Amino acid sequence: MNVTIIGLGLIGGSLALSLRQHGLAQRIVGVEQSAAHAQRALELALVDEIETDLAAAVSQADLIVVAVPMDAMVTVLPPVLDAVAAHQVVIDVGSTKQALLAAVAQHPNRGRFVAVHPMAGTEHSGPDAAIAGLFEGKTVVLCDADRSDADALHIVEQLFHALPMRLLYLDGADHDLHTAYVSHISHITSFALALTVLEKEKEEQRIFDLASGGFESTVRLAKSSPATWVPIFRQNRLNVLDVLDEHLHQLQHLRDLLAKEDYTGLTEQIQQANHIRKILP
Amino acid sequence: MNVTIIGLGLIGGSLALSLRQHGLAQRIVGVEQSAAHAQRALELALVDEIETDLAAAVSQADLIVVAVPMDAMVTVLPPVLDAVAAHQVVIDVGSTKQALLAAVAQHPNRGRFVAVHPMAGTEHSGPDAAIAGLFEGKTVVLCDADRSDADALHIVEQLFHALPMRLLYLDGADHDLHTAYVSHISHITSFALALTVLEKEKEEQRIFDLASGGFESTVRLAKSSPATWVPIFRQNRLNVLDVLDEHLHQLQHLRDLLAKEDYTGLTEQIQQANHIRKILP
Questions:
Q1: Rounded distance, CA B35 to CA B41, Å?
Q2: Do B210 and A182 touch (CB under 8 A)?
Q3: Partner-chain residue, chosen from B141, B195, B241, that has the shortest CB–CB distance to A258
Q4: Is the ipTM of this structure higher than 0.85?
Q5: CATH numbers and ranges of domains, chain A
Q6: Which chain B residues are within 8 Å of A225, Cβ to Cβ?
């Protein structure tokens, strides 16, 4: 299979490595707006070739992967679909789905598009962040799969089965709600935690000599790029606000229990929180 | 060296394994309130023997380690100090220090005590959670070290150097402020995040099929035991409230920027949060 990947960052680059490692791509063409990233993607052998003309890059591929930030996704996907022929398949790998699905809902080539979200990532970005095993054993969500042509869907299912990933089918609205809970809120919390400690650091230079595993684990996501995350928060704004309000409510409740020294209440809340073990054993 | 460890949970048990692995303890006696944990500590060979009489356990040891939850720490440490002779050394391994240091400030054997906080842990508890390499390469804080006898301090320094750990010296007040930032607040945030998603789970059964690395990383600490953490929050209440209020302020600010669609402001805040890279590269 010949593959064209538009956007050679963490996700696009990792997919390139995975496809090659599993013998799923014979030739990979990359499209990348940043000249520095394009050059680096060649050096890292993520792609065989860089193509600057989008239509030319699309015409050469059996599979076209759109792996740009979510704000660019809604403008890049329609012209890609304009250019595809009946045998070609297009996927995105974006973190929000409703806006993107709406942008192409009436497109005459809608059937050639399969909306895909591989639930994997790191706090790093750009071609240097690409990792061959990033997707292995993780879940990939296929959204509104009934709107894709059966043959296109089958090709995409075979591909992600082979990585191997676990396939999950959701409609776009459910996808965006669920990712607000399991991904987007964690990032907001982590950004706020980093801002909290950085605020204190102004006064206390040596405070972070103590940074240990627990802190690193909760604040790791705060290294993530705004170019990736602001468009995600923008496209999933109402769900993120909904979850964030619940989170603020829970934090405020814990704060109030501690302020009034209700240690029985605090113990009960932590026991309740411990039930997360049934979700993440 | 003969060692007595009072409290055979995650920290006491891990220290037993580390001391033995590095040939630092010839014989380890354990004191443990829970009969089940005492039995398990023997099965796991964390200790050679369980002693139920505290004074007898103390009298046999060159080094006595008090590794009980912080609420028990302030009641257990004074009678331990009552029982020690001039050649013996006592350490705690607790996560808060000011209340404990105050509890023994006027004790006639204060000099035999060295206040120690190894900055390492996991979300698990009990003897089964003990890990031999838990402390390796981590930081250990020695608090108010000038209040310990020189020979006692020297023995403790040699011991933690051998594990090996990086030694840091702080007074009790600075320790408690700094741990509020780098450890205690991460736990509160994680508990609140777990409560947030568990609240939503009542409505949405399948939401957590999607749980991925980022979520797991931020919510992992929410598995931690209230028996460990409520006493820590209690003893460090004012510092924790101070940090928590700053964190609530930062979260509310991010929420307001998203609510009013100020994406430039949101980008600036995330760029600011990214500076956490200079603390955790």
A1: 10
A2: yes
A3: B241
A4: yes
A5: 2-171 (3.40.50.720), 175-278 (1.10.3660.10)
A6: 270, 274
